[in-house]
From TrEMBL:
Xref: NCBIfam families: yajC
GO CC terms: plasma membrane
Name this polypeptide is given: Preprotein translocase subunit YajC
InterPro entries reported in the protein's UniProt record: Preprotein_translocase_YajC (IPR003849)
Membrane topology, as annotated: Single-pass membrane protein
Organism listed in the record: Vagococcus bubulae
Signal peptide limits: none
Pfam families in the cross-refs: YajC
Residues annotated as transmembrane: 6-23
GO terms under biological process: protein transport
Cellular localization per UniProt: Cell membrane
Length: 91
């Protein structure tokens, strides 16, 4: 019975040290690919949300900067990487 406990402890340590970090790395890589795909598919007219919660419509896209129209006659320039996703108003 004592050896079974030791074997279980060793398996838990292996799980914690090897398997969990690999799974986390894979998940982070998938998120990175998804975000890069989102940024590459941006186009003028898309309504997007920033990580600060600001919602705006894309007016112009430069290499690293996106011009967002957030109100009438109000356009702000933001870094592409501050965008977290498209915004769809649900009515």
């Amino acid at each position: 019975m004592k050896t079974v406990g030791i074997i279980l402890l060793i398996l838990l340590v292996i799980l914690y040290v090897v398997v969990l970090p690999l799974a986390k790395k894979r998940y982070q890589q998938k998120q990175l690919v998804d975000m890069q795909s989102f940024l590459n598919e941006l186009s003028v007219g898309d309504q997007v949300m920033m990580n600060s919660g600001i919602i705006g419509k894309i007016n112009r896209i430069d290499e690293h900067i996106v011009h967002l129209k957030v109100a009438t006659d109000t356009i702000i320039r933001v870094d592409k990487h501050s965008l977290i996703g498209r915004y769809n108003e649900e009515k």
